[in-house]
Batch of 3 targets.
Target 1
Amino acid sequence: MTNTRSLFDEVELPETWGKQDWNLAYAKTKQLFEPKSPVDQDRLFVGRLDQVADLLDVIYEKGAHAIVHGERGVGKSSLANILRDRVPEQVTNLKFIKENCRPEDSFFDLWSKVLFDFEYEGTPVSDLLKSETRHFIVPKVLETLDRSKQYIFIFDEFDRISDQATKNAMADTIKHFSDYPANITVIVVGVGFSVTELFGAHPSIGRCCQQIQMPRMSDAEIDEIITDRTPEIGVSIPDDRRMEIIDLSQGFPGFAHLIARETLLNAISRKNRSCDELDVSAAVREGTKKAQESLQQAYKDATYSAKDNIYPQVLLACALAHRDQMGLFSASDVKGPLCDILERPVEFGHFARHLAAFCDDSRGPVLRKTGKPKRYQYQFIEAPIRPYIVMVGKRDGLI
């Protein structure tokens, strides 16, 4: 297994801290909590035991392939990053090659990137594919790779590909190596609630791949993110404050990293070895400033109004509404939280137009609507905006 030990692992902090100890705690906090970057060290990756086991089964089985899908921000890329570190070191014939997809990538661009260091009959594969138009050439090239090795090609952020011809060609390539097993494993990772969202209505892609859905993290897994890191820092987060961070994160590891980091940094700035309510409140204020700019802008677009001042409250009620496994909720699910936020009874007519507006281009849209009239269901288009909305609601005293 890859050695990923921290520079700080062997440092023991004294009971009484001086300036250097506080500086070290600050540095550790910044190193261990990374809200904007996928985890790339196995020792820092927590939970997801079922998904890891499913992917390892795919890797070990000849002719097996996988599609990892789920909401944005739930840890799909982190899972792909640490996969090789979960393989026993005695297994030496596996070669992992991972690349991120870009919107402009064609089918040949994708394979040129992962095969950049390879040659085909003396010609660099990237040069060979530059002017190629025949999709079957890619399987032909792959079939010439060293048979003593098993190649695992991981295409991350596949949802960024918009060209349907590229999606179809990738699906056909996966199907080929499913029908004719070789030393090739393809793992596609992307945002989507289903394989159809990633590939379109390809007739067989769902049958020739292991479909692995990444759900939001459980409370226990979010808790593990925090409790695995704080002992090394030397500043504790008591149970009640930790539960508050877990609730605010809503199953998204990036927000757990962000809020926990800012909570710890605030305690460190006050030279407190134990975080309290003031630190979490400060973290929420700071977190709303440091969240992704796209989330901040989406919130502003959704809630701006010169006349009607309850758009923020209705959007917060949507974020707090009960959801099914697909993230869908109904108007009736919004009613209860909105009554609590406004501290008065409300009926559907009081917020129906707000829900409709959130589905309109003029407000993002921030929600998508499915179903039939009087039975509509709603879903956040970008799921990570939900914890951001909750943080803003807490910052502004709405909850």
Target 2
Amino acid sequence: MGDKKLEELSKFFFEIAMLKRTQRTGYAFLGTGKESTAAHSFSTAIIAFVLGKMAGADAQKALLMAIIHDIPEARTGDANAVHKMYLKRDEKRAMKEALKRCRPCKDLLPVYEEYEEGKTIEAKIVRDADQIDMLLSLKEQLDCGNGNARMWIPYVIKRLKTQEAKSLSKKILNTHWASWWMDEFEE
């Protein structure tokens, strides 16, 4: 690979690294908490993989789709529900322009477009994983004393499409956020 192509790849990698510093904006409306887009994408990807396995879908495709679903936010920033009422973002254009720098990434655009269309089982799973990640954050906030999170939870649940995500959401709501480690010390 030539110097120019390596330079373009370097720029692409710097761009996606920007997601580590891009803050998700919904927490300002919740009143507490914070999270980067990269942290959200990581959790969403693992959740999508597991939901994909549960649903008998292409779990690896769901994993990839979830990893890339927020790449455009390096250029557009994160917009929460209130922002979206007033802003028009061209995320597809942002994705196309980002991927121009990464020739080995050309196969990612159709995966992103499939996610955006939201019609395939994998796209639905990733959209649900995105909501499950939010639900986990809200449950953590609720368990830590932020009563505002209780008002948000029904809206998240209402957006779930797959039976696997709906079943999982019920269990999440009945599980304390810290039980994954607290239960280790029961004796």
Target 3
Amino acid sequence: MHPLILFIDLDEWYHCRWATGSADSRWADLQACFREQYRSGRPGGDIEKPTLQILDVLNRAGIHATFFVLGEIAEWYPGLLRSIAGYGHEIACHGMHHTDMTRLSREQFSTDLKKARRILESESRNPIIGFRAPNLVIAPYLHEVLAEQGFTYDSSVCPSRKLFGKFGNQSGSPVNPYRTSRCSLLKRGDSDIVEIPVPVFPFLRLPGAVSISTRMFGWPWTRITLDHALKTGAASYYTHPYEFGGTPLLNRMTLYERFFLRRTGRYMFGTLQRIIRSYGGRICTAAGYVSSHFKG
């Protein structure tokens, strides 16, 4: 059986593009959000309880996952990061801040990546070999920077049709993990970097193995996506702790915000249990998969 790589992206609800960081977001930046929501200059700790609950579910099932962690999350919650690493889960890098890298220069991104990796390695006491771009938005220089800094794998490619201003140029990329070319993460080749793409729903080529799609379109959408991808190789699925918590209390939520935050909480715990029941015997970390399937 082909393995299923389980990812948990450790970013919070306010990191979503509708909340902060885009021209149309609710708040101009994180500080504006924190002042309104928490009456503070830092977050209120929403991420801690659902993350610990996810850890409990995984630990009871004897499953290890890969956690993509933001550098700023590690700074805000160092104890949480140590708990994740202490249970034997892999820590990988999600960047320093949850910002589209296309808004950064190559030099800015490279500096932030080094800083985030240094923080994660210091707190987890483990080497950091994997990266995922915030919002799955990648710049042409990403492959070169990852190679320069010695990363082993990336998981930023989603071979989807264009959607919400993203993807489109990635639609021809493979749906199963592959060794990338020396100049692009989007193509097969013989570089030292392995790409672990986000599987898409067959034929329609829309994101499928991601919890946002699960909540929008239902478990059958995700199950069809995963089963189709696993026929030809390894596949991956990712989710976020905020989706397991309660809906944030926002004033005058827009229809889009309500739709985006639908089916959080109990529904996602049910989804995680479904994944464990359906694929438990084949779930692994990204580092474990890459080390056993891409030697040399």
